[in-house]
Hints:
Elements: E1 3-12, H1 17-38, E2 45-50, E3 53-62, E4 68-76, H2 77-80, H3 89-98, E5 106-110, E6 113-122, H4 127-140, E7 161-168, E8 171-172, E9 185-187, E10 196-198, H5 205-211, H6 219-238, E11 241-243, H7 246-255, E12 260-265, H8 275-286, E13 289-292, E14 298-306, H9 313-338, E15 354-356, E16 360-361, H10 362-379, H11 384-393, H12 401-405, H13 412-420, H14 425-433, H15 448-467, H16 481-494, H17 501-511, H18 520-537, H19 543-550, H20 557-571, H21 576-592, H22 610-632, H23 635-642, H24 646-655, H25 663-681
Helix pairs in contact: 1-4, 1-7, 6-7, 8-9, 10-11, 10-15, 10-17, 11-14, 11-15, 13-14, 14-15, 15-16, 15-17, 15-18, 16-18, 16-20, 17-18, 18-19, 19-20, 20-23, 21-25, 22-23, 22-24, 22-25
Family: Belongs to the class-II aminoacyl-tRNA synthetase family.
GO molecular function: arginine-tRNA ligase activity; ATP binding; glycine-tRNA ligase activity
Protein name: Glycine--tRNA ligase beta subunit
Amino acid sequence: MATQDFLVELGTEELPPKALKPLSDAFTRGITKGLEEAGIRFGKVEAFAAPRRLAVRVRNLEDAQPDKPVEKRGPAVKAAFDDSGNPTRALTGFATSLGVTPDQLDTLETDKGAWVIYRTIEQGRPSVELMPELVDQSLAALPIPKRMRWGAHRTEFVRPVHWAIMLFGNKVIESPIMGLTPGNKTRGHRFHCPKSLIVPTPGDYEVVLRQEGYVIADFAERREQIRDGVNTIARHEAGGQAVIDEDLLDEVTALNEWPVPLMGRFEERFLDVPAEALISSMKEHQKYFHVVSADGKMLPLFITVANLESKDPSQVISGNEKVIRPRLADAAFFYDTDRKTRLEDRIEQLKPIVFQDKLGSLYDKSVRVAALARKIAGAIGSNPLLAERAAMLAKTDLVTEMVLEFTDLQGIMGQYYAANDGEHEDVASALNEQYMPRFAGDDLPATLTGCAVAIADRIDSLVGLFGIDQPPSGTRDPFGLRRASLGVLRIIIERELPLDLQTLCEWAEAEHNSMTEANVADTVVDYMLERFRAHYEEQGINAEVYLAVHARRPTRPLDFDRRVKAVEAFRQLPESLALAGANKRVSNILTKQGGDSIGETIDTDLLQDKAEIALAEQIRQQAEKVLPLFEKGDYATALSSLASLREPVDNFFDEVMVMADDEAVRNNRLAMLNLLRNLFLRVADISVLPTAG
């Protein structure tokens, strides 16, 4: 079958920069999925995205879907013909529904009898008919939270659509999309080439736009061109290094069709302001990249990316310098003003600020967190007084001028202001570290004081919100409790802190006086332990491993983690399948025979068979060896040792009847199996693991 390249382009008003890449990716996925579901063969699918356009090109798209055989089963042969062999009403009705006569039908012999069947070849639809439907479906499915209308059109999209291209080879597909009749004309750069440009074939698309239209249509290519240009100008013009935030780079890429990096300067006096404040001002408001020296110190320079080639770049640079100067002057003013008031003098300002209606103000939360942080600090070998002090000051930077203007600087400015006030170094650090980790993979608090405050703040929110029946539901999690739970677990595990979630939640519950729910601590602990599941799945650890440990409900995260790692290592051993199966069998037997009422004491005088004598001895030896390991939390070594029980366990079940007629012998064997199972249960319920059977 012949193939042609296919191109669709949607020309719009400037698209939201943060949405451009997701929209392009979704548009491309939609068309790819549609082609796959339609069964039409195609080659490479290429995405293009620029401020005023979304486009997709499909290489080597076949002219049509392949023809496919179709079978439709009708009535059974017995019901299709009467005693004289004439077609029944069932048969004629089936034939009529298909537009054929009974003599055009075949029969199909099956194990359940013979059936009337209709066989035909369904002709594949031409690509020129199919593609407009796939494009419409893809556009309708784009992740656009709020669509808009424009002019007299009833069409809706994220921004007004002004032109469209739909080409199959050199042929225009004129089926309307977005209320427009597609053609073969695109538009160039708004200023450098404000006119229509003909795209002869899909393969010419980006070439025409680049050479005639001053548009680099490929998002990834434009992104790397900006990166290279920004790095080059920083290196050559300043001898420094540009700091490129990947999210900012994506946003700048989405703002420019013909990017031209330019370097500007600001007054050195602004370097007295914390670098984070300067960066926030340049990045959030102006989309500038900042520049640092070889030793990482910020330079009084910025790099902007213009969306055109100016005949006089100095004018563009000068304009940007004029814009950034008042922004930086504001930051300097806020910094100077804020330092005139100590953080401790701002504590009272937290009283009118509501944290949550039923849980009080930020001041109330600070008092609770301070009490909890003090206890946590004592439990982890830190200074309780420093943790309490840090917690009381933790939210005070929220009422500073700087943070009111630049909300992403909360905590960061608190650290600067605390240091300026002469607070202890750990207290100052904790004001920033309370928010760590801010996102998956982020750094953890470096100080124990910071750990205490970070954990206390999150536990207070979890217990408080669950206590007033405001847990996360579905996708709604307005207070970020899922993230808070994972943050607590990460801090405790990676900093190896000897903390128990049950104790933490009970401490926090004692500080609240507005609880409406019962058993809050237990509920929160269960919720947090459930978060472990996703935590380990991300590490590639099988869900059964998590479930095996979760069945024992260990509430110390560090202990939970060690058990999971031990069970994961055990699962890799060749003996694990058989022992998991044996544990499952033992569990079933014990449950049927009384469960918890069965003891662990083995009477050696009642041991009869060679296999049970051998197993009893092996269990005794293993118990002596692994019980001290369990006490130390060395679960991996203990499980590795218990793996040696596979052979005696297999022999026991092959040669010994557990349910002996003699009650004393039977109970003795059950006690031995109970002791065996309880050794494994010191770590996890390994009967949950996959078994050999």
